[in-house]
Write a structure and sequence with these properties.
two-stranded antiparallel ribbon; 10% strand; Lysozyme; mainly alpha; Membrane-bound Lytic Murein Transglycosylase D, Chain A; 22 helices
Length: 504
């Protein structure tokens, strides 16, 4: 069990270490339709969540307390968190403290006017930010330290995530950098961070940390100096190489600093200042904020099912925003289906236990509701359009024409017939739900007439240019304007003839 907690926030599959109690009392609701075309649906069956095992909850709590004590920062009172007292920073004290940190670090943690300015920023000007990252550190630092230890990277680099994103895995910069370690799209791709319409691995804390460690290790192989690694991480190796050349070949950060981009000139001093703040926050009466989303421990599980955070929130008594906080990698608050492998779900440990205890029944209940909603939707369609007509596609017919003929929309035709495109073949049979034959007859239209080398549409009352274009497959509003430059389309009148297609 202890080894399991070392993997917290690691978004990878793992063995389940707790007993799953399943409660198989599940029924499907059925939608019934009355003869008078009114829908009567059976009362919705609500799945009751089985409580998690109390003994396992206690064991989890004890393990959390034991493991995370070394990562907690002192929490202050509300008054201390909101205190805006300006603190004088004495050079002699700061210099002595920085010297102790420098001796224990492979970084050159220099104390000078630049680093002092950033220390003042975190201690005085942005005290609330410092309090916030102290509160988030126990959530992300254990995972970061574990990864950096495996890659043999100095553990002090964990503080760089504060400079990059303030320990916010959902952070996005004005230039498009994303996540805890602020990867740009191209650099993320270089280090196996996948980005799709549903998923952005740059916002996956574990995967992004592995990528950052790999990137930093590659940079260290280039420069052999951790301060230059920091500069290259921020501005790219190209800018660092230019600064080295312009400085006359120096490979010391402070000597090439004047030749670096403006943002990078403050990057290393900011990192040094954050190192100081995270080690001496309590000396300046800065304490960890206790936000609503802060927890001591989270865990991950694998899932092969697809569902939305909104669906899951109801079962776990969580808000959709909370689930999104723990799973920022899912861009649309939705875990998509996969043909192979599995996705992962991250939750607080007490919610993980509750989910595992009810996992199969939660999936089944979500599916039941989806089926019930689908049945209700089809029932509504049948009530509104009780008469089913089968239309056989003839030569020259297309979806817009058929929809107009039967008084329905193209979207409805595609939904009723499970069409993914508007292409039709002669002889295709289409299901059409229409109110009555009388209505269909009233709303039907004649096929376009021929006039010279063109097909011509005769304008009806209420027609607009867009309406006419959608009736003729492959025709756009611009096409109509080009073919009918002599017409005033802002004042279409019934009986006017509009060229729609060339027959040549």
């Amino acid at each position: 069990m202890a080894a399991r907690k070392l993997n917290f926030l690691r978004f990878q599959p793992k063995d389940h270490m707790r007993k799953i109690f399943l409660f198989f009392t599940f029924f499907f609701s059925v939608a019934a339709f009355a003869l008078d075309n009114e829908v009567e649906q059976t009362d919705s069956i609500v799945y009751t969540i089985t409580p998690d095992d109390a003994v396992l909850l206690m064991i989890d709590s004890l393990l959390n307390d034991k493991f995370y004590n070394c990562f907690r920062y002192c929490k202050g009172t509300e008054d201390s968190l909101l205190s805006k007292d300006f603190q004088e920073l004495q050079d002699s004290i700061l210099k002595d403290r920085m010297q102790v940190l420098n001796e224990a670090s492979p970084f050159d943690l220099t104390y000078n006017r630049y680093t002092k300015a950033f220390i003042n920023l975190y201690i005085n000007k942005r005290k609330s930010l410092s309090s916030s990252v102290l509160g988030r550190a126990p959530l992300y630092y254990p995972m970061i330290e574990e990864v950096f230890d495996r890659f043999e990277i100095p553990l002090e680099l964990k503080h760089l995530a504060i400079v990059e994103s303030a320990l916010n895995p959902s952070a996005r910069s004005r230039v498009g950098a994303q996540g805890l370690w602020q990867f740009m799209y191209r650099t993320g791709k270089m280090y196996d961070l996948n980005v799709t319409s549903y998923i952005d691995d740059r916002m996956n804390p574990y995967k992004a940390t592995v990528a950052a460690a790999s990137y930093m290790k590659d940079l260290y192989k280039m420069y052999g100096d951790w301060n230059l690694v920091l500069a290259a991480y921020n501005s790219g190796p190209g800018n660092v190489n230019k600064a080295i050349r312009r400085s006359g070949g120096h490979k010391d950060y402070w000597k090439i600093r004047p030749f670096l981009p403006r943002e990078t000139r403050g990057y290393v001093p900011a990192f040094i200042a954050v190192n100081y703040m995270m080690n001496h926050a309590h000396d300046h009466r800065i304490y960890a904020s206790n936000t609503l989303l802060y927890v001591d421990a989270v865990d991950t599980i694998e899932t092969r099912n697809s569902f939305s955070f909104k669906q899951l929130a109801d079962y776990l008594k969580m808000s959709e925003e909370e689930i999104k906080f723990y799973n920022p990698t899912y861009k649309l608050s939705y875990i998509p289906p996969l043909e192979e492998g599995s996705n992962t779900l991250c939750l607080p440990t007490d919610k993980i236990g509750l989910f595992l205890t009810n996992e199969k029944n939660i999936y089944a209940d979500i599916r039941r509701k989806e089926i019930s909603d689908s049945i209700a939707g089809k029932a509504k369609q049948i009530i509104e359009h009780p008469e089913l007509i089968v239309h056989r596609v003839r030569s020259g017919e297309f979806l817009g024409y058929i929809a107009e003929k039967h008084g329905v929309t193209v979207r409805q035709l595609m939904a009723w017939n499970n069409l993914r495109s508007s292409r039709l073949k002669i002889g295709d049979k289409l299901k059409v739900y229409t109110k009555s034959k009388a209505v269909a007859k009233k709303r039907s239209v004649a096929k376009p007439v021929k006039s010279g080398n063109y097909q011509v549409h005769v304008v009806k009352s209420g027609d607009t240019l867009w309406d006419i274009a959608r009736l003729y497959n492959g025709t756009s509003v611009n096409d109509l304007k080009k073919l009918n430059s002599n017409l005033n389309f802002k004042r279409l009148k019934p009986g006017m003839k509009v060229k729609v297609k060339s027959l040549g």
